[in-house]
């Protein structure tokens, strides 16, 4: 008969990528982790993991079982959390994926007071610019900048996101400031890899107008885009939550071409299915309160507060 502890250990090993790391996360010895895995495989009558001295990989049966195992572990965790919520407590694991720059700059300051108020929550915050599959990757929710295109996700809007063209004073002094979309096309651009050179989109009477500048740099991180623009390498289209500080200090200047880029929104989205937990709702409410309306990064000299 399968034991719940073995299923939980298998999920941890699969997510950790090694028995050693899984043992560390579960605060167990490696021998106990190995014994639980062996017992689970005997119960199922199959091999779930290929083990070598250098790596550990899932078998086909392991891949198939992992989806259900995650669901089982989540159901048990949610059941425990539900009982705690009945007592007015927020407890248990909460797994969130968010973009690197937004997470580093804005999630931390908002979440530290939240976690201090709810010490029973075990938050895992994965910062990755890759668009994680919330359900398949085991996340309770994902934070996204831009449209939610996955119909399996239910989204809450956190904040509006204004995007502006920026360049360093040195770049403008050397190359001049474009005054129109036609002028902009001749300038070197710093582009976000996941959006590409078609990201310079502006509203027009005929729909969105796309300006394709010359590629100066393609990079998959907003911090590096801002730093490259500050270094004078080209013009970047950046959200104000990334560029706002550099604009206020004068390191970057807003490039005015007579029309502002299409705005976007920041969302937190969770997989369809069971209703969101109380702790996820509280997490979202914390972010909405901390960000404010309009967002604090669009208000000069304003920072997150402990709300």
Short description:
The chain is an alpha/beta fold and 307 residues long. It is 41% helix and 24% strand.
* Tertiary shape: elongated
Helix-strand topology string: HHHEEHEHEEEEHHEEEEHEHEEH
Counting DSSP H or I runs of 4 or more residues, the number of helices is: 10
**Largest β sheet strand count, sense and barrel closure:** 5 strands, mixed
- Uncertain segments are 301-307
Q: What is the typical, i.e. mean, pLDDT?
A: 88
Q: Percent of residues in beta strands?
A: 15-25%
Which strands sit side by side, in order, in the main sheet?
Answer: 4-3-5-14-6
Multimer state:
single chain
Distance between the termini: 48 Å
Structural class by secondary-structure content: alpha/beta
How are the SSEs placed, and which strands pair?
Blueprint: H1 4-16, H2 19-26, H3 30-44, E1 49-51, E2 56-58, H4 60-86, E3 92-98, H5 100-117, E4 121-127, E5 141-145, E6 153-161, E7 163-167, H6 169-175, H7 181-184, E8 188-192, E9 201-204, E10 207-210, E11 214-219, H8 222-230, E12 235-239, H9 240-249, E13 253-254, E14 264-271, H10 278-291
Parallel strand pairs: 3-4, 3-5, 8-11, 8-12
Antiparallel strand pairs: 1-2, 5-14, 6-14, 7-12, 7-13, 9-10
Describe this structure in words.
By secondary structure, this protein is an alpha/beta fold. The protein is built from ten helices and 14 strands. The chain has a five-stranded mixed β-sheet with strand order 4-3-5-14-6. A five-stranded mixed β-sheet has the order 11-8-12-7-13. A two-stranded antiparallel ribbon has the order 1-2. Helix 5 links the parallel strand 3 and strand 4. It is elongated and about 70 Å long. The N and C termini lie far apart (48 Å). The relative contact order is 0.14.
């Amino acid at each position: 008969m399968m034991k719940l502890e073995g299923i939980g250990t298998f999920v941890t090993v699969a997510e950790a990528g090694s028995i050693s790391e899984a043992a560390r996360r579960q605060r167990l010895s490696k021998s106990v982790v190995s014994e639980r895995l062996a017992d689970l495989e005997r119960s199922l009558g199959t091999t779930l993991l290929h083990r070598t001295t250098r790596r550990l990989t899932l078998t086909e049966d392991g891949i198939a079982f992992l989806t259900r195992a995650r669901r089982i572990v989540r159901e048990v965790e949610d059941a425990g959390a539900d009982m705690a919520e009945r007592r007015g407590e927020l407890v248990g694991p909460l797994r969130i994926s968010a973009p690197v720059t937004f997470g580093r700059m804005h999630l931390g300051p908002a979440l530290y007071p939240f976690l201090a108020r709810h010490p029973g929550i075990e938050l895992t915050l994965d910062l990755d610019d890759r668009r994680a599959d919330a359900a398949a990757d085991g996340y309770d929710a994902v934070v996204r900048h831009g449209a939610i295109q996955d119909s399996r996700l239910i989204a809450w809007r956190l904040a509006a996101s204004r995007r502006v063209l920026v360049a360093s004073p040195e770049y403008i002094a050397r190359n001049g400031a474009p005054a129109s979309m036609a002028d902009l096309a001749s300038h070197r651009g710093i582009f976000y890899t996941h959006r590409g050179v078609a990201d310079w989109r502006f509203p027009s009477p005929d729909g969105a107008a796309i300006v394709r500048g010359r590629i100066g740099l393609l990079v998959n991180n907003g911090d590096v885009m801002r730093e490259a623009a500050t270094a004078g390498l080209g013009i970047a289209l950046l959200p104000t939550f990334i560029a706002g500080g550099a604009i206020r200090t004068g390191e970057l200047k807003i490039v005015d071409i007579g029309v502002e880029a299409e705005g976007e929104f920041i969302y937190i989205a969770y997989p369809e299915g069971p209703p969101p937990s109380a702790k996820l709702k509280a997490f979202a409410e914390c972010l909405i309160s901390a960000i404010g309306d309009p967002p604090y990064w669009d208000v000069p000299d304003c920072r997150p507060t402990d709300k």
